[in-house]
Amino acid sequence: MLTLDDVHPYLPSGERTMAFAGIIAKNTPSTANWKAYLRVVLERSALRRVVHAAEVIRDSASDDRPVAEIIALAQQATADLRDLDDGEPDYHSAADILPGVVSLIDAKYNGNAPRGLSTGLPDLDEIVRGLRKGNMIVVAGLTGSGKTILGLQVAQHVTTQLGGAGLVFSMEMTKEELITRGIASMGAVNLSRLDEGSTIQDDDWPKITGAVGKLQKARLYVNDQAGMTLARIRSIARQCQKHEGLDVIVVDYITLIASEGGGQNRTLEVGKISTGLKNLAKELQVPVIVLAQLNRGPTNRPDKKPRPSDLRDSGQIEQDADVVILVHCDKESEEGQNGATELIVGKCRHATPGSCMVQAQGHYVRFVPFAGKPPTEEQVEMGRVVRFSSREGRKDHE
């Protein structure tokens, strides 16, 4: 530019050559960002090929050809798209992964590694070691066992106590019902009084006010649309993560998610939905808590305890889950009638399965740490209650 300015200091328009050259340099993309520009070019090229493949499929469908031949042409057109390269490899060498893994191991050794999200129930946290990013956590139980209570309670704890953001998809209850339950749970206010209104007592109002204040500050978001599909759930979750941030998702419950294919085999459809929810957890890198129902198998056993294989509708749910928490309350026992509930962690990819006791406070729609008496040896042998750990036994006698 300096040489050109020496020879022709002015352009025919009268403008300074040096000034015009500066404008050109300013508006010319820098070679430092060549990778980003290359990605844009490759993406546009890929889109053109996608459009071309769609046109081939459309034109083939209009031809007077056998259906099998048209399907074969469509498959070939889409197969050609599988080799599209966006410039970044879809695989990673062990050498590239090792530094991060070793750093994490060292942080765990020194007690500096971040734990998974707390559920708000210490004994459950001790078993599952927190809710981890990218995991699908299935909470299952028979009707009325409290699986919805547990799922919502975790979302409330994350958003009101840990400062995180949570998104709840409820296809069974309205958003007003969910928030009313939140007020009852967090304020220790009898839910029936909140429903009736006229029976609210004077000392309930400060509790209600306190709970409302916490919920107003919480980044807790609710969707209560009926007939939600997996695609719609994914779209809303991505939107929420983009605008509000996202630390946990609760889906209540998997069987109520509508299928997109309109097929007749519900088992296969639920299996696809389950795999889709697991992929959503990995994609958004947040724990996804999926509520599910159990079949009636546990009621026919002497100990009445559920197993992961009792999950209703599809065995794929058990396969996809990273953690399976079974909510078990034996209503035929005196302890169960008084709210003693066992949380059975029947599957946990990163920890040893186990179980713990919690106390259901049905009028407050919440669980709290168990504070009852340890079971007798006879009760343990009957298999109707869990054997307490030494830590739990000590706590009960303090």
Oligomer: single chain
CATH topology of the largest domain: Rossmann fold
> What would CATH call the class of the largest domain?
Alpha Beta
User: How much strand content do the residues show?
Assistant: 5-15%
> How many strands in all?
9
Describe the sheet with the most strands: 9 strands, mixed
CATH superfamily of the largest domain: P-loop containing nucleotide triphosphate hydrolases
Distance between the termini: 84 Å
Helix residue percentage:
40-55%
The number of helical segments is 16
Rg for CA atoms: 29 Å
Q: What overall form do the CA principal axes indicate?
A: extended
Sheet/helix structural class: alpha/beta
Could you say what the CATH architecture of the largest domain is?
A: 3-Layer(aba) Sandwich
Written description of the protein model:
The chain has a nine-stranded mixed sheet with strand order 3-2-4-5-1-6-7-8-9, sandwiched between helices. It is built from 16 helices and nine strands. Helix content is 47%, strand content 14%. A hairpin with a 4-residue loop joins strand 8 (354-361) and strand 9. Helix 8 crosses helix 10 and helix 11 packs parallel to helix 12 (266-284). The protein folds into two domains: 1-88, no CATH class; 121-397, P-loop containing nucleotide triphosphate hydrolases (Rossmann fold), CATH 3.40.50.
Secondary-structure blueprint of this entry?
Layout: H1 2-7, H2 17-27, H3 34-62, H4 67-79, H5 94-109, H6 122-128, E1 136-141, H7 147-160, E2 165-170, H8 175-187, H9 191-196, H10 204-217, E3 219-223, H11 230-244, E4 248-252, H12 266-284, E5 288-293, H13 316-320, E6 323-328, H14 334-337, E7 340-348, E8 354-361, E9 366-369, H15 377-382, H16 390-397
Parallel strand pairs: 1-5, 1-6, 2-3, 2-4, 4-5
Antiparallel strand pairs: 6-7, 7-8, 8-9
Helix pairs in contact: 3-4, 8-10, 11-12
